[in-house]
Automatic annotation (TrEMBL):
Transmembrane segments: none annotated. This is Malonyl-CoA decarboxylase. It comes from Pseudoroseomonas ludipueritiae. Residues 173-433 form the Malonyl-CoA decarboxylase C-terminal domain. Residues 87-170 form the Malonyl-CoA decarboxylase N-terminal domain.
Amino acid sequence: MPIDITLGARTWIERLWSSIADRGRPYADVPGIARPPLVRAELLARSLLSERGEASGAAVARELLSVLHDLNAEDRAAFRQFLASEFVPDEATLRAAAQAYLDDPSAANATALFEKAEPPRQEVLRRMNMAPGGTATLVEMRRELLQVLKKQPELKPLDTDLHHLFSSWFNRGFLELRRIDWDTPAAILEKLIDYEAVHEILGWDDLRRRLAPDRRCFAFFHRALPGEPLIFVEVALVKGLAGAIQPLLSPVDGAAPGFDTAIFYSISNCQDGLRGISFGNFLIKQVVEELKSELPQVKFFSTLSPVPGFRRWLKRRLERSADVLRPEEEAAILALHPVEEGAEKPTGAAVLDAMASGEWWLDPAKEAALRPPLLRLVAEYLTRPNTGMGNIDPVARFHLGNGARLERINWLGNTAPRGMTESYGIMVNYLYDPDSIEANHEAFTRSGAVARSAAVDAMLSLPALVPPKGRSGYLPRLLGGSSENGEKPAA
């Protein structure tokens, strides 16, 4: 896929700002190079706020980015601390604005309070973004910041400001959707191999298979990061719902005859510095529209998704409770673990996790004993009411919160090591039905109700949840939302 337009636009912008910065250099307050690099960076950051001219500001911003580029890791960490602790609102001015609003809650006073509450740090970051490469520098700064944020909570104000600015700068209106195929420049294809976060791409032959005629791949790009995908989705064209990932990744070429379903089997965020900025909702919505236009025979849109939190959840549940398994399930498991005479009889819950080690699924007896309880428990895990951000699987929250229906639970859908480790190989299909997306989304958002099929209900022996019908043909916010805990959403 050619990218000349985006690259050309960016090159033109870089030339423009470089020219402005060159002309502004004689008027800018640029500290001498004799100072230590960290001190010089701090002085340049302060100078950014004092510059009033566009040309002089661009000159200072360009100089600051040049200095930051050459800082060592220790000095970069110190500069982040400097940004987080300095450039805060003036307390007296803010207090006066707040009191004025309390005395007279007018629109004018509300606006004044808002302006006084904004940290000067945000203006520093905006002006840093004026320099060529400014956006990439700030995204990289946040990537490093997020790696240490838990241990250094004092950096939270800087993270909050960066997140706030990125949410505006990476608004959907600035994103460009492109299809990725084998004619896309190699530099971008290499990035897909590097950034794939769900199902590893094993070199160029594997990538060629994922870009075959029965596959589609789409990505979002932004003018400020030319040649850098922000997020991409991989799609398989099949007949009916796909229940396992290995056949989709097999090297067999050729579209399935009579395919009628688009399976979204991998969604990967590419920029760690943009974590928490929602792209998946817009991406899937637009890809659905692209596929409907190109391939009118495709009538169904579904995911084939992992359940990354299931095994951790089950382990905690087994540790807290002795009655996780039903009597018949426990009996089937214990039958495979004869107890020596005089030894204490273990519970089924105690041996379940021990059984699920090695290639246990190749042992017919173990597979038959583990299948009923694990399928029932994963159904329970995925259909619990959404009562808080930490109470539901992150991938489930991503899809259910945007109107998908939990359609089917697939036994041994992913027998790769990661799939077995995270969820005993179980995968699920989340179905996007245009007639019910809106109703499902509202039910999940308002009450935490999980829309699910009769097949899933059969695993639970619970009454079916039937949400009200949405408007026919209406396709609202597919996949809107992000994970606050930093986990990357995936198909």
